[in-house]
């Protein structure tokens, strides 16, 4: 691996203009394809294999001609200090309904006074607007007409708000993302001491994200990729793209500082840091692609799209970065080095080889490794406590900011019709052989009315063939409450079908939330086994050790538990919610835990590979275990710290989104990276390695014969290019240690 990457680095450096032109051409081609591609389809929240999804499929099958994918809007009217049935208020509502019906692309509008969609106290009413096209294909004129009608209908006597998916989701503010990128730029400048060197990781990361998002857009229509598919790809592409380039550029500057030529320095940078980039990228790709085992199309799409963007980031770091380094020449060196001013110590990555702060921290950790290890584990365990109270759900208009009309409409409906009105349950009744759906549905409705927590059961709606009927059940409690969940389970009780010979299926948003949560719970352990298992095997090959990969996996579990605890405290309990823009605490998005597991595992292994490979490099070159840990930490801590701060800044930028899903993911990933980089990798890892000593690098002899020698630390490269003998550490990689800790 090291020898191949060494040759690739020299080739890209020497053929720099061809390589740069190839990547530029790829960006232009991807942009042209994206510009000509149709709009992405609406996000598919289908959950194969669940009862809620089977019920939706039955509705599509037995009620043809109804556009289930059509956009909808629910316009809510609230009389101020009176009733909507008052003559002047009623006229205003009826005029608004007529205007809504005349808008473009509208298929149907319900009159609240004819459909009896008026609250019991007469203060609130609503009209349902159904469109002939999906939300993603609505014309701007249709949305403008809806918003204008709502605005013109408002008066001192009438409050009008609108919810539903017909309105565009409020656009995400990119200012916070720009702040994240600006922080990354400042960190890079401080790390490198050179604007040119700092600009390369930013430029190449943006290039990779640009190509990735353009390809996703171009493939959206033929592959059915939802409109949210590129969210994770953008987030991760920026973060890992900057980090991977940072490690290669840093190592290149270190090689230049040793007096090597540009081509030689580029080759050695790729042969060492490039190897770590490859295997760090592989762990991220494994974690993201593994999301497919959950069998939720949205997760699969987002995971594979993000995995593709990570692959692009790795390829750019291995080819375009050496090319740009060749174009920049020695101007990429820090100003002090260009002026011939020597740095103290042996220079590397544009600064003293050993960071003084890192050296002091390493001495502190290695002086009291057991106390540091126990304190760190205890602290992470305390942070993880809220995770035991995790509640899951899918976002709806109730999770929108309080300033939006969607949220205000949601609250008005809850006040006027009860908290369960925003989460009605659809009950599909299929008649038995030779039976009548009408009679079966009436019998089922009678049983449902006797259940606890039921406010309303609508009369059955029967299809043309008379074999299927639909009931709407309105709970008395909010969609996310435990009482509503218990009602869904009661509706699915086989006893509800007894005697009727009918088949009853329950669906609706609330039922879908419950099914999603259950499906994710069932998939979590198999997913963890697959991802952690494959990465464990990969890390055995990288480190030629059993205990180092095991320690890496255990550290990841601590990081993910702590991050989930913080997510629950902020988004579910509301701690510091006002500071972080959480207007309505509530259940955490159902997909968040498994999503975070996949992404954070890949990122955690990034820092493990980058930091510990440098320690192993020192160990292979003959250092004692203690000196290998401290020296490797002093060499790599500064760059790993910069990479972590950059990643935290990029992820934190997505917290400015008005989308609850994006905000939660941004906060969770930023906090998880903080815990994993600074608590686990920078504190617990060196403490654990010091306690393990030689045993940390032990590999059984029988396994040593089967594990490929991929030479991540570049030892073979060193002997081939320098002509020196291989370094001999204090013993072999599969030494035997007696009870006293002495090597034999």
Task: Explain how this protein is built.
Helices cover 60% and strands 8% of the residues. The protein folds into three domains: 2-36 and 172-383 and 514-714, no CATH class; 65-163, 2-Layer Sandwich (Alpha-Beta Plaits), CATH 3.30.70.1320; 424-507, Alpha-Beta Plaits (2-Layer Sandwich), CATH 3.30.70. It is of the alpha+beta class. The strands form four sheets. Strands 8, 9, 10, 11 and 12 form a five-stranded antiparallel β-sheet that branches. A four-stranded antiparallel β-sheet has the order 2-3-1-4, with helices on both faces. Strands 5-6 form a two-stranded antiparallel sheet. The protein contains 24 helices and 13 strands. The model is unreliable at 338-354 and 723-744 (pLDDT under 50).
Sum up the structure in keywords.
single chain, 744 residues, alpha+beta, Alpha-Beta Plaits, 3 domains, 5-stranded antiparallel β-sheet, 4-stranded antiparallel β-sheet, 24 helices, 13 strands, elongated, disordered C terminus
